[in-house]
Structures are given as structure tokens and as C-alpha cells.
Design a protein that fits this description.
This protein is an alpha+beta fold and about 350 residues long. Helix content is about 25%, strand content about 30%. The strands form four sheets. Strands 2, 3, 4, 5, 6, 7, 8 and 9 form an eight-stranded antiparallel beta sheet that branches. The termini are far apart.
């Protein structure tokens, strides 16, 4: 079990509180979650002989992309082989299953010495992405009984967990949708009338930097958001174009993941822009200052649903895949020579269509 735990930990997301998920053990099985030292583990069971089950929070993937799902499952199996010194071999195509508790899963069976031994699955329940490994002589028989018994903590319990982890007081955006903990040394700044008219919901000062959150309600496809946040940073006056990072994900306690990019602004400052999908709309996040990126990375992960948030809608928030960026063509020699002007025009039109205005600082 320890080796499987290490493999799961390598493929999981950042650590979370184990109380977010629980599993009712089948007859003959026992819950050993409390004995696990790695906080990435959500639940762990021990069964007869060498049977075991582990559930962990996983890094974000596109669940609708069968190729990406299979690649992730292969990564987990390979990690288990490295950790155990065994030679588990994937023996099935990716299969799909839904259970009465609302959990949906995609999984493969892995055999050892020609005999069924493992099920490796990715699953979602109430918007929480998880990876599960079931070791059993009859893994496909046991899988429905165990995955069908997984439960996720109620929203109020998750909020309580987030409050316990916070460094400072919790504040809400003006629409009541987002609740976040202010890190030590940061404080809420009152919004100006102009900022409210432009859709800004919250402003934070801290560490010599500033962060603002603006509500975005439009029909822009979420697949365009990675390009938009990168373009927002690239076109900010004073940003060094060569320092602009490719978009990356940043998880939140509320489960939707933000995409963001940042670049150097002058000699000692930074500018960061992100987009947090939320229900059927989203929020633009802008940060500026000498520690803008650190401030963004300290504030956003602690976000949970606020007093006006509807857990069902939050759970249905779409995941924004990064994939291979469409602008990567323009980073090649041919792309730079043939399309620099076209790329600049396209990005300008995208920004204008969103009517985003950079007002930080």
C-alpha cells in the first residue's frame, strides 16, 4: 500500500484535507485513512489478504478527452510499477461507469502475471476530480461496491475546513459568490465607484502589491481563456514580452481551477492576469506590484463558495484545458516571419471583444 500511495502522491494535485471525502468500507474491509501520512490521500481502505483501495485528489485533466484520460491512467500505472518493482500491464481499453451516488468514473484494468489485479480509475463526484487505485483478486467485481460508497463533504464542511486553514479573515466579493482568506499582511481595499461600474467585485492590497477581481459575463468559449490571459499580460504597458509565461492552472478549494499568466513589469514589478471559471460565468483576476504573483498564489487557492454561491452550479463549472496553445505557431521562425502582424491584430480584437480594461494601479 505504501508504494501505491507514493505513486498516487506523484500524480495527484496539491495536498488537501482528507475529510473532503469518505468511503463506507465493504464487509471485511477497514478504513485506514487515519494512518496515512501523505495529505494528498482522501481515503484508504484495507481488505482481505493484500487487497487495498486508495483515493486521492488528482491534478486537473480534461475528462472529455479520452486520449488525455488514458495517458493519465497509463502514468499512474507506470508510477505504481516504478514504486513496487512489479510489471502491471494494462489489459483493457478505457471503460466508463456511473454509480448511484452520482460518481462517474473512467478506468482501466491492469493485470499481473496474466491475472486481474488492479483497477486504476479517474472519477468525479460533486465536481471533485479524483484518482483511485483498487488492488484485488476480483477488482472489477469490487469496484462498483467501493466507488458507489464514496461521499464528498457537504459545502458547509468544506467551507469550515477552508476557514481553519486561512491565515487571516475571510472576505467575500460584492456579489457574494466568492469567499477568500486574506493572507497575513494583506487587507481589503474599498472599490471606487468607477471600478464597481466596470464590474469589479473585490480589491486586495498586500505585500506592496494589489489584486482585483472583476466579474465577466459573456459568451466567450472557455477554450479561448488561456490565450486571453496571456494576451492581457503581453499587452500591458511596460511588460517585458520575453518574460510572459505560458498559461498555467491554479486550483481553488472551491474546485474550479483558474488559468493565469504573468510577466515582469519594469525592473522590480510584476503583472499577472487570470481567469477563474465559475458556474456559467467567470472572474478576471489582475495583480500588479513587486510581489503580484505571490499575492495571487496566496489568495486564489483559498477561494470557496460565498453566501450567494449555489454548490450545484459551482460543481458544474467547466474545466479549462490548456492543450497545445494556438499561438505556439507564432513562436516558430516561420510563424514570426509570416504572422507577427496577424497575431497582433487577432489578439487585439480578442481583447476588444471582451471589453476588458486594465485599471490596476
Amino acid at each position: 500500500m505504501t508504494a501505491i500511495l507514493l505513486a498516487l502522491f506523484a500524480c495527484s494535485a496539491r495536498p488537501v484535507r482528507a475529510s473532503i471525502a469518505s468511503v463506507e468500507p465493504p464487509p471485511g474491509w477497514t478504513d485506514v485513512s487515519a494512518g496515512q501520512s501523505k495529505r494528498a490521500v482522501l481515503a484508504a481502505l484495507k481488505g482481505p489478504e493484500t487487497s487495498s483501495f486508495m483515493l486521492a485528489r488528482m491534478k486537473p485533466i480534461d475528462f472529455d478527452n479520452r486520449g488525455e484520460v488514458r495517458a493519465y491512467l497509463v502514468e499512474v500505472v507506470d508510477g505504481i510499477n516504478r514504486a513496487t518493482g512489479q510489471a502491471f500491464a494494462i489489459a483493457t481499453d478505457v471503460k466508463m461507469a456511473d454509480y448511484g451516488n452520482g460518481l462517474s468514473a473512467q478506468y482501466v484494468r491492469a493485470d499481473l502475471n496474466g491475472k486481474p489485479r488492479l483497477i486504476v480509475a479517474v472519477a468525479r463526484l460533486d465536481g471533485v476530480p479524483m484518482v483511485a487505485v483498487l488492488s484485488s483478486a476480483v477488482p472489477e467485481t469490487m469496484l462498483p461496491e467501493i466507488l458507489g460508497a464514496v461521499k464528498i463533504a457537504a459545502p458547509e464542511e468544506a467551507d469550515a475546513d477552508a476557514s481553519e486553514d486561512s491565515d487571516g479573515p475571510r472576505v467575500e466579493t460584492e456579489d457574494g459568490q466568492l469567499s477568500l482568506a486574506l493572507p497575513s499582511g494583506a487587507s481589503l481595499r474599498p472599490l471606487t465607484d468607477l471600478e464597481r461600474k466596470q464590474g469589479f467585485m473585490l480589491a486586495v492590497d498586500g505585500w506592496g502589491s494589489e489584486l482585483v477581481i472583476m466579474k465577466i459575463v459573456d459568451d466567450t468559449p472557455v477554450s479561448m481563456e488561456p490565450a486571453l490571459v496571456r494576451a492581457t499580460v503581453s499587452q500591458m504597458a511596460g511588460v517585458d514580452p520575453g518574460s510572459v509565461t505560458r498559461p498555467a492552472h491554479l486550483d481553488t478549494k472551491a474546485r474550479p481551477a483558474m488559468v493565469y499568466s504573468w510577466g515582469r513589469l519594469g525592473e522590480s514589478s510584476q503583472f499577472a492576469a487570470g481567469f477563474l471559471p465559475w458556474c456559467y460565468w467567470g472572474y478576471s483576476v489582475l495583480a500588479k506590484g513587486p510581489r503580484a504573483v505571490a499575492l495571487l498564489q496566496a489568495v486564489l487557492p483559498g477561494i470557496v463558495g460565498g453566501s450567494a454561491a449555489q454548490p450545484r452550479l459551482v460543481a458544474e463549472t467547466p474545466f479549462i484545458p490548456l492543450g497545445r496553445p494556438w499561438w505556439s505557431f507564432f513562436e516558430t521562425r516561420r510563424g514570426k516571419a509570416a504572422g507577427a502582424g496577424i497575431a497582433g491584430l487577432a489578439l487585439t480584437l480578442l481583447l476588444l471583444s471582451r471589453r476588458r480594461r486594465i485599471v490596476v494601479g
